[in-house]
Amino acid sequence: MKLPRRKFLQLTAGAAALPALSLRAGAQTYPSRPITLLVFVPAGGTPDIIARLVGQALSQRLGQSVVIDNRPGGGGNLALQAVARAPADGYTLLMVATPHAVNVTLYEKSTTTITRDIVPVAGINMDSFVLLVNPSLPAKTVSEFISYAKANPGKINVASSGTGNLTHLSAELFRMSTGIEVVHVPYRGTPAAHAGLIAGEVQAMFDAVGAAMAQIHAGALRALGVTATTRLRVLPDTPPIADVVPGYSVTGWLGIGAPRGTPTEIVERLNREVNAALADPAVKARMADLGSEPMPGSVADFAKLVDTETEKWAKVVKFSGLKAE
Description:
Helix 2 (46-62) crosses helix 10, helix 4 crosses helix 12 (299-320) and helix 7 (166-178) packs across helix 12 (299-320). The longest helix has 25 residues, at 5-29. This protein has two domains: 33-127 and 251-320, D-Maltodextrin-Binding Protein, domain 2; 128-243, 3-Layer(aba) Sandwich (D-Maltodextrin-Binding Protein, domain 2), CATH 3.40.190. By secondary structure, it is α/β, with parallel strands linked by helices. It has helices at residues 5-29, 46-62, 77-85, 98-106, 114-117, 142-151, 166-178, 190-199, 209-217, 264-278, 281-289, 299-320, and strands at residues 35-39, 66-70, 92-97, 118-133, 157-160, 183-186, 204-208, 222-226, 251-259, 292-294.
């Protein structure tokens, strides 16, 4: 039977509206089943620990399990791509981090980016970094380190735990800000980089404060300055690098994102619950143990951070000439 044109158009319009109606209905009953949070590093890394900590608190508040799914690889891009392809219904989330902002420029040919395919939901925490040197280096302050590097161009080896991550890009930003010339030496992971620094294979490294605390307290490594703009409670005697290098600042951060198109009601609900979880004394205490600071805020606050960090690290990646392999 041939349908009248008007009836056909009405049915077509109704069918097209079904996905939107389904999403709105889902938002009203959200969540009605377990939520999966994809993490871009293997189990045991600090982002994984934070994800499980916040995931447990969210599970208690939402009344549904939050399942942690570790998807390392591609500098964080594998997890990003998986979430970008998932239904925009709030049941597949991404642990967003600084590397995803870096990758917008680093992987300039990628068809999937955090700014295009992910909607920011909520910030979780921030970590500061610290400039470390081998105690044998004749530099006890940031000023002395800069002077020594300028007097010995290309003779200071600076370690990182991997090309393109913040331990590397912190040094590139420092080089860009001071005009010094140093040699980048990438290692496979933090323990290997620490071992190389302690053995004197390299002379300096920028590392996350939480990862470096044990070596600093043991006297195996010397802390010259922190990348925060104020002194840290855990390193009260170590001044900010910005005291000597105006404007220098590096913060590693984590947050939660969802596929683009996720209903606003779900995004706002998740934002409220994440903020409530970050206010939990047990969560705050565990973060403090890891050298992290909670980063509560609105959806707009987190979106602004992502945009600002993407722009900032684009300049550093271009300055360094770094290209994704």
